[in-house]
Write a sequence for this structure.
């Protein structure tokens, strides 16, 4: 049993898709979230920059005494997870393997789409995670650079014309590939799930990479006897390197409750 908090970080709001699953499935756990809004987007950055930011984010969470960390960011998971594991003595849960396993379980036709940031696609991490488990799958992977800025500026509704136009532009080719399963390989993308489902077809399985990583952390804590023994709702704190008020405003709809964003001392 371990009463310390679970840590979660992302470049901004996207990691809330993992935090929401943690809130729902592990309600008694304490949670420390960090969104590095001041430095987002991570997707266009170099691998070296991504590693440096990931180190700094981890140090912030460790200063809050977390027992495990969900790297709720496809870009960091695909470019820096090995370096984080080498540098810090805390269990890390990335999104790549968790999403690949879920996609392979979901697919019936073996045609899997992957959408993520430029840096994630460039790394080839999703492709490797899928092909190393099943070399018979057909994969179409593509970067969607316009999605993260849209979500961070509060545009996510399927009714929003900006969202619809971006989804159509980024996913046009992918739809012609006719995947039956699509990995939403950037944690921001499930916030556009409704618009993506409408465009791709409702029968396409959509895999939330952050949600899958959160579930795998839950299984690990259970197996290692590291869940809290508390039976009162966990304390959740949401930190940002950017504007706390804006973080609160944009995050509440995705978590389903009001959030008091706190400016991180970082
Ligand atoms: N949400 C992150 C990811 O999963 C990063 C997006 C970005 O900052 O570009 O890749």
């Amino acid at each position: 049993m371990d009463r310390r908090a679970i840590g979660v970080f992302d470049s901004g709001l996207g990691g809330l898709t993992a935090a929401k699953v943690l809130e729902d499935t592990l309600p008694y756990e304490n949670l420390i979230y960090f969104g590095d809004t001041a430095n987002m987007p991570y997707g266009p950055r170099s691998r070296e920059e991504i590693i440096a930011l990931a180190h700094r984010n981890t140090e912030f969470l460790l200063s809050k005494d977390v027992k495990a960390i969900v790297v709720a960011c496809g870009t960091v998971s695909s470019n820096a997870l090995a370096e984080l594991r080498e540098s810090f003595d805390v269990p890390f849960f990335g999104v790549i393997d968790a999403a690949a396993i879920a996609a392979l379980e979901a697919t019936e036709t073996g045609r899997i789409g992957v959408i993520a940031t430029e840096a994630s696609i460039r790394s080839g991490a999703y492709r490797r995670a899928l092909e190393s488990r099943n070399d018979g799958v057909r994969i179409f992977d593509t970067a969607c650079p316009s999605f993260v800025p849209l979500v961070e500026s509060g545009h996510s509704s399927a009714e929003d014309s900006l969202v619809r136009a971006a989804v159509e532009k980024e996913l046009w080719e992918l739809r012609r590939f006719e995947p039956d399963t699509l990995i939403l390989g950037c944690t921001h993308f499930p916030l556009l799930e409704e618009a993506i489902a409408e465009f791709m077809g409702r029968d396409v399985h959509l895999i939330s990479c952050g949600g899958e990583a959160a579930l795998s952390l839950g299984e690990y804590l259970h197996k290692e006897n590291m869940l809290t023994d508390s039976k009162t709702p966990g304390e959740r704190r949401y930190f940002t390197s950017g504007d706390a008020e804006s973080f609160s405003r944009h995050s509440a709809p995705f978590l389903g409750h009001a959030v008091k964003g706190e400016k991180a001392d970082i």
